[in-house]
Automatic annotation (TrEMBL):
Pfam families: NOG1. It comes from the Eukaryota. One of its GO terms (molecular function) is GTP binding. The lineage of its organism: Eukaryota, Metazoa, Chordata, Craniata, Vertebrata. This is NOG1 protein. Residues 26-73 form the Nucleolar GTP-binding protein 1 Rossman-fold domain.
């Protein structure tokens, strides 16, 4: 997509659950790998209503677990 002569892309990853990296399945690892190879910002969206089936605490913990993978973004 383009906006004001800037090119950008939205990548909606499948659910990445909060568990250790070595316990992640193939789909989760592909999503993380795709995000890690982006050369731009990563936007993490949380569902503060908790209607997604995960508590806010679980979502924050997931963010903390994957944040080091995107330290340079």
């Amino acid at each position: 997509m383009d906006y004001k002569y800037l090119r950008w892309q939205v990548v909606d990853t499948p659910g990445i659950l909060d568990h250790p990296l070595e316990d992640r399945n193939t789909i989760e690892m592909q999503a993380i790998t795709a995000l890690a190879h982006l050369r731009a910002a990563v936007l993490y969206v949380m569902d503060v209503s908790e209607q997604c089936g995960h508590s806010l605490e679980e979502q924050v913990e997931l963010f903390r677990n994957i944040k080091p993978l995107f330290a340079n973004k």
